[in-house]
Design brief:
Layout (H helix, E strand, L loop, with lengths): L1 E4 L1 H7 L15 E9 L2 E8 L5 E5 L9 H15 L4 H9 L5 E4 L3 H19 L5 H9 L3 E2 L3 E2 L1 H18 L1
Parallel strand pairs: 1-2, 1-5
Antiparallel strand pairs: 2-3, 3-4, 6-7
Helix pairs in contact: 3-6, 4-5
């Protein structure tokens, strides 16, 4: 998983902003940001091509050594919740085993993430607080990427395409 970090996330992780190499696999690229939700910090990861998002609340600096395991587990949990098939999940998780951090490069994704942060705050105000439900709301909210799409459906199309390519090999 290639995570393109905002300045806030860079500071939180203690990484330095290295530009994304041109040969990076676009389907493995996500943007990450640290948000303040309520009294706790939360990590919001958004897939660059589909805007599919995963929220992880209660992130602390103490757990940085194990954060990659937590991200991997949350992504798998979210994909299961959003009814991805086992083959789709396996294929998508293959791109998520190794983690790399680079500087953010897509202002459109950052703008969508800012909108998502406001949406999360609204849903938290009305009583929803678990990561899976909040992420599902984001993934079932329409966004414009070449027409209006739902992030869940867009990632599902990418996953199906990847599964078909894998089977052809």
């Amino acid at each position: 998983m290639i995570i393109q970090t905002t300045k806030k996330l860079e500071c939180f992780l203690g990484t330095h902003g290295i530009p994304l190499p041109s040969f990076a696999e676009p389907r493995a690229c996500w943007h990450g940001n640290i948000l303040q939700l309520g009294r706790h910090k939360a990590l919001l990861l958004t897939h660059n091509e589909s805007y599919y998002s995963v929220l992880i609340q209660g992130v602390t600096k103490k757990e940085l050594p194990s954060l990659t395991k937590r991200i991997y587990a949350r992504l798998k949990e979210q994909l299961l919740r959003d009814n991805f098939t086992p083959k789709e999940i396996e294929t998508l998780l293959l791109f998520s085993e190794a983690f790399s951090y680079f500087k953010s490069s897509n202002r459109r994704v950052l703008g969508v993430m800012n909108d998502m942060a406001k949406t999360l705050e609204i849903h938290r105000t009305y009583g929803e607080s678990d990561d899976v439900s909040l992420s599902s709301h984001l993934n079932n909210t329409p966004y414009a990427i070449n027409g209006v799409i739902y992030p869940r459906n867009a990632l599902k199309e990418i996953a199906l395409e990847m599964v078909m390519m894998k089977e052809l090999m």
